[in-house]
Amino acid sequence: MDDKSYPHLLAPLDLGFTQLRNRVLMGSMHTGLEESRDGFKKLAAFYAARAKGGVGLIVTGGFSPNFRGRLHPLSAEFSSGRAARAHRVITDAVHQEGGKIALQLLHAGRYAMHPFAVSASAIKSPISKFTPKEMSARQIKKTIEAFARSSELAREAGYDGVELMGSEGYLINQFICKRSNHRYDEWGGSYENRMRFPLELVKAVRARVGRDFIIVFRLSMLDLVEQGSTHEEVVLLAKQLEQAGVTILNTGIGWHEARIPTIATQVPRAAFAWVTEKLKSEISIPLVTCNRINTPQVAEDILSSHQADMVSMARPFLADPDFVVKAEQDRADDINTCIGCNQACLDHVFVGKRASCLVNPQACYETELVLSPAVSQRRIAVVGAGPAGMATAVAAAERGFNVDLFEKNDYLGGQFNLAMQIPGKEEFRETIRYFSRRLEQTGVNVKLGQAVSVDELGSYDEVIVATGVQPRRPPIPGIDHEKVVDYQTLIRDKVELGLRVAVIGAGGIGVDVSTMLTEPEHQSLDDWLKDWGIDKSIEHAGGLYPHEEYVSQRQVWLMQRRPGKMGKGPGKTTGWIHKKVLEKRGVELLSGVSYDKVDDQGLHITVEGQSRVLDVDHIVLCAGQTSVDELSDALKAKNMNVHVIGGADVAGEVDAKRVIRQGVELAAKL
Ligand code: NAP
Ligand code: SF4
Questions:
Q1: Ordered domains of the chain (ranges, CATH)
Q2: What pLDDT is stored for residue 439 in this prediction?
């Protein structure tokens, strides 16, 4: 075992009645396939690929044990023999690949987005539309019975275990915390009473499934909301859960309504492993830790320093199904790393779309987006080695085409080279590393520093133009003043800015630049936790304590012409974080702005009919982009097969998710 690079990660875990092949748990993720037509076949292919890739224990997305517990009226439920039979295709596919899989049972409680929502008390959550009905004692017992019945059915369906979702602010968590449990009966009031629901639940499930079935309990160890649990309470519950028959305790961090980032890319890697570690000496069953673990080394460090017995990773398995196999083969550099962007996974699920992955568009499309071997040998030129060009070149080469990739710069990665310099977006570097490796391995002929001409492209069977975008220079009088700099020059050339800065354009890049300009330098993990008011002792309820926030020395104005809300950035699950950070840093947001001129005094603007001069040292242009394509018209005129993709195709709202998918889909069809 010790000659492996990740001996702790790859060590088997003996659960007594069964063994897991390593310490990797693939955390629960809703994919959207659970409810879609033919979804189970696609889910089977999705999970089978991860089992083949070496995952120790897969946990499915959440299924409700009854109708009221569904997140949406049409969300998946697992409560009948019919459902158990339908799930066979999933469990069989995973077992055929030598994997193990547990079904997650999730009752949404007050997070249910329908009028039949129920909870411990009739208290609406700040993120819900519906006020739940308080459950009667009879309803509580019936719900416990529903969990037990679903667990029994999971066993019949061939699952190796169940995970009971007791964190993130769902029903079980709602019973545990005072915040959402104001009952006076035996299910509320004292902590002993508030623990009764999870404990009775585990006892009922254990009694029904027998001793040789995995029960994972996802315990909220750091609620990050007011009136959440303290560490002392967590320890008490964990000990009793162990006695009640839980096999493995998984960690939950933060309720959905918490206003502290817990998994987004801004969160430092392994930022919450210390939470699990606090419980480690208190219980003897295996403990799983999670959140922002995305490389084998980060996982190995956690396990070798005894912070946990297993690590849970969810999104990293969307990004790369072969994460574990590559770690086993000591090929960590070949892993397509999850960059924590949420753009194609959680942001999709929250708007009812199928999950996938920005860096791996084949995720959840295993049976549809297939790179089959090419039937004829063709020469393909890809021009531009940004995310779109790199992904297309790799996918085409994987199919067996002969691919040349031209890039006018002497480096790969295009706009990702800018993104990775934004504080909290360093992960983009990993994507450049991954695609660079794949270009090498798939034999793509990379020609850096070559601004290829139309004539040089004449001999190719297909030309793919992926020449990207350039920053827009809006026609504002005085735009060429020395105070003005575009975002690309600012980041690329590391231009030193003064203490008063105006940012024109409040899209994703304007928000990122404003964050960068007001960010404290060299934050340690402890600084980051402190900045968000997280109490490492967890003596305060929910792990929150009153704290002093970092105040930026620099004053920044972020502006857009559109009236109304601004500053949220593109993603549903990350927009609020951007907004909160700008607020914390004191960035002044101005919408409905017209830009009158720039001169030595600064930026002259009109807002709501009032003229103002922002006496700033610098003005940064983040006013969107325009396409760069100097090739396609000339190539088409020569009757060549030309495809324009990425920002060169459409510059408006260009984002890496769209352009990588577009490139891989094109390569699949060539
Ligand atoms: P964007 O989101 O399209 O925003 C462009 C901004 O410029 C808008 O605020 C727009 O607002 C303003 N603007 C447009 N034309 C203008 C003009 N002629 N004069 C003055 N202002 C003008 O583009 P972006 O910020 O450049 O971002 C590009 C893409 O990168 C985005 O689509 C995004 O998906 C991606 N991105 C994503 C993230 C992320 O965190 N996921 C971060 C950064 C970038 P008004 O027209 O109202 O003035
Ligand atoms: Fe990770 Fe982004 Fe892919 Fe989601 S979309 S799995 S966060 S890289």
A1: 13-287 (3.20.20.70), 379-471+627-669 (3.40.50.720), 484-623 (3.50.50.60)
A2: 98
